[in-house]
Amino acid sequence: MIEIQPIRKPLDATITVPGSKSYTNRALLVAAMARGVSTLTGALFSDDTRYMSASLRKLGVEIDADEKQTTFNVHGNGGSIPVSGAELYIGNSGTTSRSLTAYVSLGHGKFVIDGDEPMRHGRPIFDLLGALRQIGVSARSQFENGHLPVIVEANGLTGGKTRLDVSKSSQFLTALLLIAPCAKNDMEIEVVGAREMPYIDITLAVMEAFGGQVINEGYKYFQIESGQQYQPRIYNIEPDASNASYFFGAAALTGGRVTVQHLHLDSAQGDVQFLNILEQMGCQITVSDAGITVTGPRQLKGIDVDMRAISDTSLTLAAIAPFADSKVTIRNIEHTRWQETDRIHAMVTELRKLGVPVVEHRDGLEISPAPITPAAIDTYEDHRMAMAFALVGLKVPGIRINDPECVSKTFPNYFEAFEELYT
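Now predict its structure.
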């Protein structure tokens, strides 16, 4: 447990946020499929990226890691998997589990992907398995419940046409897109259940950087020609916009100023759009070559917002919402019920523990302003619950975060970086 101390002076801080998890894990996998050595700089070293790199090593990919220099050197195998089978453990990393389930289809042999209890019961993979089977991959859930463990009996990836439901996660589509250039034949993916999918923009950006070409027809249909070869390169990972949101939220909440270095509005990361929400709530946004600065207002305004495209930041908004001048409504995030935890219910439960009136909906929640009752916040093994609700403690004494170590999933030194807000 850690207790957050309120800020006693005007907040004015400059923060460096680690590299993007989404970019790092995609780049690790694409570099593994390139032929030759790629260097990933500014990479994230966290639970999720360690699970990815450790799994790739078990699959025959040589990876040299330098955590102090935030660098991976990946010796790619040109789209082949040299081992004849492996048992892979991916913790609670959804990106890793879905991407590796597709990736091992390039090999020949039996591959088992397993993870922590939340992955075994809460985070679905059924739709991805169905899409893989449509293109001839023997892929199934061991217990036939649509979750991990997954067994793939691979015999190379033929390619062809498949149809995929992404209503529960765009990670299913990412997994198929990343491996498609290595298929024996062209791949065509028809997508259903899609709306805005900013994480697919990240996927396409990484593929393109390594020489992968994709025809994208309105995120409804994708065509990828076979015979492509990812090219090794030096690739810089930009800061994680989702994790930057907590420091932007700190400025918004305290009426102070925070700059996140090296992050820019033209990022493919959809979560930079959280800044638009803060601007509507009264914050001032300043962009420079150094990064992005948020200056908070004297009083935050209420807002009614669709957050489907930037749902990871819905927890940040929920944490600062009780301090607004009127109700905050968060809509269209039903898919977050199948993430690290049921995030809608978790947000509702912990806000009510703080004395905040909340209405829970199937796809969102309504948060009314209220005085805060000090409490210990449960985090549900969810890094974003811990990071977001720590913000409340900047304004109110007595806020304690249970299991703060869960931030190691994507931001191991989060609370050290949080301390920089006080200096």
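The longest helix spans residues 241-254.
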